[in-house]
Here is the input.
Amino acid sequence: MKIIIDGDACPGISIIERAAKDHEIPVVIYCDIHHFIQSDYSQVKVVDSGFQSVDMYVMNETKEGDIIVSQDYGVAAICLSKKAKVINPKGFIYDEKNIDRMLEERHISQKIRRSGGRTSNHKKRTEEDDLRLEKNLIRLIRG
Here is the structure.
């Protein structure tokens, strides 16, 4: 088992690394050349910039039993199909029961935006998000 982080949009890396270190699990962070991420614990892999370049590396490197941290529903769906566990940076766990609904909601939001409509903005990260991420990540680690 390893933890793979889609690092281009992942607050909470320090929380993830702390949980991984406590359980002696390796962490790989993927980011593109426009992001600067340093870590004393994780292996940081910088990839070319480009449409979904980091997403492609995350999906291709995922193996059964890995834990993936990503807020991208498409990445989550593919990684779930590879029998990985997937959690978003706010600590919500993706699974076979909720991923279809999330993909459908994303599709509807994209249609609204393409037609000139507006959708709600993302809410700011809270302390509750940090606590949820830590609690649910440890739950996934322990299986």
In short: The beta strands are 3-6, 27-32, 43-47, 67-69, 85-87, 93-94. The first strand starts at residue 3 and ends at 6. DSSP finds five helices and six strands in the chain.
